[in-house]
Every structure is written in C-alpha cells, then in structure tokens.
Amino acid sequence: MRQFYLEYKDEQELLELAAKIPWGQNLLIMHQVKGREERKYYLNATDKMAWSRSVLLNQIKANAYQNHLINPKQSNFENVLPVHLSEQASEALKSEYNLDFLGINKPVLERELENRLIENIRDLLLELGYGFSYIGNQYRLRLNQKEYFIDLLFYHRFLKCLVAIELKTVEFELEFAGKMNFYLDLLDEQKKQPDDNPSIGIILCPTKDNIEVEYS
C-alpha cells in the first residue's frame, strides 16, 4: 500500500483510474509499467475492457501500448459509433495480427486462408484477443432474393456487437470497405439484437510480415 501511495500521490488522474480496477491488476501495472502515459493506457484499457490479470499481463508482454503508438488503427469508428463504443473498439482491436500459427509460407487463395483459420480457431481467438466468440464462417445473409456471405462472423462480449471479418490476399482497396459496410448494414438490419451495439467490420490484408487491418 505504501508503494501504491508513493507512486500515485501526485497523480490524481491515474489514481482515479486505478480506483476503477481490481487490486491485482493495479499491482501488475505498478510493477510492470513505469511510464505515466503507458500506465494510463493500461489502466484505461483494463477498466473499459474488463481485462483479467492474465489478459492484462499478456497485453503488457505483447507491447500493446507501443503498438498502439506505432500502428494507429485506420477506422471510421468515431464517425459511426457512439463515443464510448468508439473508444472501447479502438482499445479492443489491434492494428496488425500475426498469423504465423497457420504455417503458410507461400501465397494462398482466400478460401484456403479461411479454411486454415477455421482449422486453427483456438489460435485465431487467442490472436484476436479477449472477448471474441466465434459464430461461423461463410455466414449467409439475404437481400431481395440474393445471398451474400461473410467470411468469418464473431460476437464481442464486451463491445456487445457482431464483428464481421473479411479475408483478403491482396493489399487493401477502397472497394473492400464499401462491400464491408454493405454487410454491416445487413447485419444491423437482420441480425443485431435490440440491446446490441452497431456491428463492426475487420478487413484483413497481407503485409510483408503481418496481417494489416482496416476497420469499418
């Protein structure tokens, strides 16, 4: 307790944030994180996303704060989501995903990439982060007697919204976002529950070393 007092006695903002999360998470941040802004980031994220101690530790080990600074997410969350949900979505979702667990070392078709992800769904859920629940692949939607298929569909328990993922094996193109927004409109009209937040879309596109992310 004395160390906690000494660390935060002149930091009213951090002290107020620390009061919102469990003591175990506070101890972890106090011992593992030294920079003020970095502490603020993890205190905020732990509160908003209800991170357990183990999830928080994994986020710290994965340098979530540094990645947040280096690779800001490209999204229109602030334009289409309520302010509180926009902030939570930005905290919960990554700017890049590492899919090395698939063992792919050559170009593949989108369907093969999808099949590999389904075969390794446990590893995919771990990489996506805490809160994702898998619903299905090639999820079917209908409009005016036409059928449309979302590559992967999830529900995020803390954001309380459907999350559609589209897989691409080429660099991002603007038309991908248009297609995703169409899918999100259908999800909100046909599948979203009354107490759910607006659906979110993730478009996974390859870069040299990782999978780059575009959000809708």
UniProtKB/TrEMBL annotation:
Entry-linked Gene3D superfamilies: 3.40.1350.10
UniProt domain YhcG N-terminal: residue ranges: 1-66
PANTHER family assigned: BLR8175 PROTEIN (PTHR30547:SF0), UNCHARACTERIZED PROTEIN YHCG-RELATED (PTHR30547)
Positions of the YhcG PDDEXK nuclease domain: 91-216
InterPro entries the record matches: PD-DEXK-like_domain, tRNA_endonuc-like_dom_sf, YhcG_C, YhcG_N
Protein name: YhcG PDDEXK nuclease domain-containing protein
Domain of life: Bacteria
A Pfam match: DUF1016_N
